[in-house]
Design a protein that fits this description.
The structure is a single chain. This protein is mainly alpha-helical. It has 5 helices and no strands.
Amino acid sequence: MHEAHEAGLRGVRAAGAVRAVQVHVVGHVLVERNRERAPVQRPVEEELWTAEAAERDGALARALAAPLDPEALFTASVTALVAGLLGPGS
Protein backbone atom coordinates (compact mmCIF):
# COMPACT_ATOMS: atom_id res chain seq x y z
CA MET A 1 0.00 0.00 0.00
CA HIS A 2 2.81 2.40 0.86
CA GLU A 3 4.51 1.76 -2.46
CA ALA A 4 1.24 2.32 -4.34
CA HIS A 5 0.86 5.68 -2.61
CA GLU A 6 4.50 6.54 -3.34
CA ALA A 7 3.78 5.83 -7.01
CA GLY A 8 0.88 8.29 -6.91
CA LEU A 9 -1.94 5.74 -6.89
CA ARG A 10 -4.99 6.31 -4.70
CA GLY A 11 -8.31 4.67 -3.93
CA VAL A 12 -9.61 1.92 -6.17
CA ARG A 13 -6.59 2.12 -8.49
CA ALA A 14 -4.17 1.69 -5.55
CA ALA A 15 -6.23 -1.23 -4.22
CA GLY A 16 -6.19 -2.90 -7.63
CA ALA A 17 -2.43 -2.51 -7.89
CA VAL A 18 -1.81 -3.91 -4.40
CA ARG A 19 -4.07 -6.90 -5.03
CA ALA A 20 -2.56 -7.60 -8.45
CA VAL A 21 0.95 -7.70 -6.99
CA GLN A 22 -0.22 -9.83 -4.04
CA VAL A 23 -1.87 -12.39 -6.33
CA HIS A 24 1.15 -12.43 -8.64
CA VAL A 25 3.58 -13.06 -5.77
CA VAL A 26 1.42 -15.77 -4.17
CA GLY A 27 0.85 -17.45 -7.53
CA HIS A 28 4.56 -17.43 -8.27
CA VAL A 29 5.36 -19.03 -4.91
CA LEU A 30 2.69 -21.71 -5.38
CA VAL A 31 3.96 -22.62 -8.85
CA GLU A 32 7.53 -22.81 -7.58
CA ARG A 33 6.57 -25.07 -4.67
CA ASN A 34 4.58 -27.29 -7.00
CA ARG A 35 7.52 -27.58 -9.43
CA GLU A 36 9.86 -28.48 -6.55
CA ARG A 37 7.56 -31.21 -5.21
CA ALA A 38 6.21 -32.66 -8.44
CA PRO A 39 7.56 -35.95 -9.71
CA VAL A 40 9.63 -35.89 -12.86
CA GLN A 41 7.31 -35.44 -15.81
CA ARG A 42 7.54 -37.34 -19.08
CA PRO A 43 8.12 -35.98 -21.60
CA VAL A 44 10.43 -33.43 -19.97
CA GLU A 45 10.26 -29.79 -21.05
CA GLU A 46 13.32 -30.17 -23.26
CA GLU A 47 11.47 -32.83 -25.26
CA LEU A 48 8.30 -30.75 -25.59
CA TRP A 49 9.85 -27.67 -27.12
CA THR A 50 10.92 -28.56 -30.62
CA ALA A 51 11.33 -26.18 -33.55
CA GLU A 52 8.16 -27.67 -35.04
CA ALA A 53 6.19 -27.09 -31.84
CA ALA A 54 7.50 -23.50 -31.77
CA GLU A 55 6.31 -22.92 -35.36
CA ARG A 56 9.84 -23.35 -36.72
CA ASP A 57 11.24 -20.66 -34.40
CA GLY A 58 14.42 -22.41 -33.30
CA ALA A 59 15.48 -19.64 -30.92
CA LEU A 60 12.09 -19.79 -29.19
CA ALA A 61 12.25 -23.57 -28.91
CA ARG A 62 15.77 -23.47 -27.42
CA ALA A 63 14.81 -20.74 -24.96
CA LEU A 64 11.72 -22.63 -23.78
CA ALA A 65 13.67 -25.90 -23.50
CA ALA A 66 16.36 -24.25 -21.36
CA PRO A 67 16.08 -24.61 -17.58
CA LEU A 68 13.69 -22.15 -16.00
CA ASP A 69 15.27 -19.31 -13.98
CA PRO A 70 12.50 -18.57 -11.46
CA GLU A 71 14.12 -15.43 -10.07
CA ALA A 72 14.67 -13.87 -13.50
CA LEU A 73 11.13 -14.78 -14.56
CA PHE A 74 9.67 -13.31 -11.37
CA THR A 75 11.66 -10.09 -11.73
CA ALA A 76 10.67 -9.65 -15.38
CA SER A 77 7.00 -10.43 -14.77
CA VAL A 78 6.55 -8.27 -11.68
CA THR A 79 8.38 -5.40 -13.42
CA ALA A 80 6.02 -5.67 -16.39
CA LEU A 81 2.99 -5.96 -14.11
CA VAL A 82 3.90 -2.88 -12.09
CA ALA A 83 4.74 -0.86 -15.21
CA GLY A 84 1.35 -1.77 -16.64
CA LEU A 85 -0.43 -0.84 -13.42
CA LEU A 86 1.27 2.53 -13.26
CA GLY A 87 0.41 3.33 -16.86
CA PRO A 88 2.31 4.93 -19.75
CA GLY A 89 5.63 6.55 -18.96
CA SER A 90 6.05 4.76 -15.64
